[in-house]
Amino acid sequence: MSDYNAIKLVCLDRTVMVKTIGLFTHRLLCDIRDNSPKIGEVEERFTISVGYACYKIDSENIDELCEMANKAENLAKSKGRNQVVYCHELTET
User: What does the pLDDT average to over 9-21?
Assistant: First the structure.
């Protein structure tokens, strides 16, 4: 299996709805998981964790948005493989 990977997303388009980003990231996760490449005779399996935050909804400061996305990514990693976490989940627990 490949190394464990994570993605931080910061959406800067304020016309994109949070739900749309969640759907996009879940689809991305499924596409990565279900389309494993072969390297020689070995099929690689990837796992991915995603944390995201949205401009104007969560903050207007890019540094704050990156920090929120980073914390969401860390929570996604702690939940296990193939997780997507929106930064609002940080305060819901």
Answer: 74
